[in-house]
Amino acid sequence: MTGNSDRRIRAADEAGIAAAAKLLRAGKLVALPTETVYGLAARADRDAAVTAIYRAKGRPDFNPLIVHVPDVIAAERLAVFDERAWRLADALWPGPLTMVLPLRDDAGLAPAVTAGLPTVALRVPAHPVMLAVLKETALPLAAPSANRSGAVSPSLAMHVAQSLGDRVDLILDGGACERGIESTIVALRPGGGWQVLRPGPIGVNGLADILGTRPETGGGRGIEAPGQLASHYAPGKPVRLEAEQAEPDEYLIGFGAIAGDINLSAEGDLAEAAARLYAALHEAAASDRPRIAVVRLPEDGIGAAIADRLRRAAA
User: Which end of the chain has less Cβ packing within 10 Å, N or C?
Assistant: First the structure.
C-alpha cells in the first residue's frame, strides 16, 4: 500500500510499473520517482503526448524538456556524443547529471521537446522505478518535474497529487526522492567549452575534474534548459532569505542551530538539506502564515544548488 488514499497514487511494484508503461505507450501522463524529484513523464516521440505535459504544467513552450533514457546507448541514438560527453556519461550516469548536446537529425523526437532548439537535454536517471519503466516502454520519456510550472518541485508522491490534481493519469509512489533537488545541467559547447546551465547535486569542481577544463562564464544564450527562468520553484507566498529569526507572520525554515518551524538539517548537513528542501517549502506553503523566511545556508558544494533554488523561489 502507498499509505495515501488518492486513487491516482499507486505502489511502484511490478503491477504498477506495468500499468505505467501501458499508459505511457498510449500517450498518457504518468508521474514517476527519480533520485532527484518526481517527473511528469510522457513519450518524447509524440507531439500530442509532449503537448499534454505543457498543458498539465502550464509550462511556457519556450522551455525545453529533459529526455530520460535507460542507458548511454539509447542516449547516443538521440544526440551527437563527443569524447567529453562519453567521459561524463561513463563517470556520472546513471545519476543526477543532464547533458545538453547536439540533436541528431534522425532522433525522432517531437519538436516541442527541444522547444525548437538544435540541442537536446538528456539524462540517465539512477532510480530503479524510473529505469524499470524506461526499459518496459522501450521509449525515451520527456519528464520535467511533476508540478505546476514555476511552483515548488515534488519530492513525494502526494506533492504531485496536490499540485497537478487530475491532470496526471497515474502517480507511481517510490517514496521520498533521495537527492530532493533537480539534476545538474551542463551544456557541452562546440570547440571544447562547457557551461553549467543549472546547479545541482554534481558540482562545478567535479565536472571540471572529469573534463580537465574550467567552465565558461556568463549567459546571453536565452533559455536552453529547464530551471533557467528567473522566477521558479515558487511556493505561492513571499520568501525572505538569510533570515536570523522569523517575524510574527513568517514560517521559518531553519538549518543547523536555528531550529525554525521546520529544520532542513539539525546537524548542518547540506546533502540532507537538499533532500528536504522542497518538502519544507511545501510545508511552509501549507501553513497558516502568509510569508516564509529561510535562514542562511552555506553555499559550498551542493549548497550552491540550494541557494540557486531559494533565490528563484524568492524572485
Answer: N
Nearest of 129, 127, 169, 124 to residue 18 by alpha carbon: 129
- Which amino acid, one-letter code, is at 65? L
Max Cα-Cα span within the chain: 58
- b/e code 283-295 from CB counts within 10 Å (16+ = b): bbbeeebebbbbb
Of 6, 1, 2, the closest CA to residue 162 belongs to 6
Residue 50: Cβ within 10 Å count: 23
Give residue 40's Cα distance to chain centre: 10
Query: What is the pLDDT tens value at each position of the chain, 315 positions in all?
Result: 344 557 789 999 999 999 999 999 999 999 999 999 999 999 999 988 988 998 898 866 567 899 999 999 999 999 999 999 999 999 999 999 999 999 999 999 998 888 878 999 999 999 999 999 999 999 999 999 999 988 899 999 999 999 999 999 999 999 999 999 999 999 999 889 999 999 999 999 999 999 999 998 766 566 677 766 667 778 999 999 999 999 999 999 999 999 999 999 999 999 899 889 988 999 999 999 999 999 999 998 889 989 999 998 998
Q: Are 119 and 102 in contact (CB under 8 A)?
A: yes
Q: Exposed, middle or buried by CB within 10 Å (0-12, 13-18, 19+), for 301?
A: middle
**For 310, phi and psi rounded to 5 degrees?**
-70, -40
Q: Which of 59, 255, 98, 295 minimizes the C-alpha distance to 187?
A: 98
Domains of the chain and any CATH numbers: 9-211 (3.90.870.10), 239-314 (no CATH)
Question: Would you say 249 and 290 are in contact if contact means Cβ atoms under 8 Å apart?
Answer: yes
CA distance 134 to 42: 11
Backbone angles phi, psi at 133, to 5 degrees: -70, -40
